[in-house]
Amino acid sequence: MRRVVKYLVTRFYKPLLVRYLSKTRKYTFKGVQLLIPPEVFHPAFFFSTKYLLRYISGLPLQQSSFLELGAGSGLISIFVAGKGSNVLATDINPVAVEYLEKNGRANHVKMEVIHSDLFEQIPSRTFDIIAINPPYYKKQPQTFAEHAWYCGENGEYFDRLFHSLPDYMHGQSTVLMTLSDGCDETMIRNLAIKNGCRLNRVHSMQNLMEEIYIFKIERN
User: Fold this and answer.
1) pLDDT grade, residue 19 (50/70/90)?
2) Per mean pLDDT, which range of 53-57, 77-81, 91-95, 208-212 is the poorest?
3) Maximum Cα–Cα distance for the chain, whole Å?
4) Is residue 116 helix, strand or coil?
5) Spatial separation of the C-alpha atoms in residues 111 and 77, rounded to whole Å
6) pLDDT at res. 75
C-alpha cells in the first residue's frame, strides 16, 4: 500500500506541490504565523517538523535554554519562545535566517538568530534542550536549500554534528532528533558511536508515506 501511495504522490502530487512552493506562502500552526519563501523547508507538507514540535510541547519549556539547529521556517523556535524559553535558532541558509528574524518579530517573540553551519558560529555554552530536524538523504548538497535534505555522500553532516554536540550539552540536557525509515539509520548510529554519542528511540509515528522516529541523543 505504501508503495502505491508513494508512486501516486511522486507522479501527481509532487509536481503540484513544487509549483505551489515556488512562491512565498503564509502558514499558521499552533498559533504561530509564518511567511515561508521557496528556498526554505515548508513544515505544512512534511511531517517531521510538526511531529517534533508536538513532542517538544510536552517538555518543561519555561525559562529553559533552547537551541534549534537548522531552524528553517522557525515554527518550533517561535512556538518554544512563546512558551517562555530562551531560544537560539540557527540555519546555514541565509534566506532562512532572514525569515527567522522576520517571523520572530511578526509573532512578537524574543529569540536569538545566528547564521551558522551547525555549531561553527555558536558561542561556547550549554543548553537545556536541543532540537534537530536533520537532513538525512545521502547526497552532497549543492545549494543552501539542499542542506535541508542532504547530509553528504557519507553522512558528513552527522559526523560533524556528533563531534561537536557534546560540548553544548550539560548533564541534564535533552537532545532530540528526528529521523525516518528513509535514512541510513545504521550509518547514523555508527557515526554517533564514533563521536562518543548514542541514540535512543523515544517515539515513533507511522503514516501512509513513511515511519518517523524521535531519538534522544546522549553522551556515552
Assistant:
1) confident
2) 208-212
3) 48
4) coil
5) 8
6) 97
Torsions phi, psi of 32, nearest 5? -90, 125
List, in sequence order, every residue forming a beta bridge with 179; answer none if it has no partner: 213
* Burial class for 124, CB neighbours closer than 10 Å (0-12, 13-18, 19+): exposed
Question: How far apart, in Å, are the Cα atoms of 207 and each of 83, 181, 214?
Answer: 29, 11, 15
Considering only CA atoms, which of 30, 34, 42 is closest in space to residue 107? 34
With H, G, I as helix, E, B as strand and everything else as coil, classify residue 169: strand
The C-alpha atoms of residue 193 and residue 188 are separated, in whole angstroms, by: 9
Instruction: List the Cα angle 171/175/181 in 5-degree steps.
Output: 145
* pLDDT, mean of residues 25-34: 95
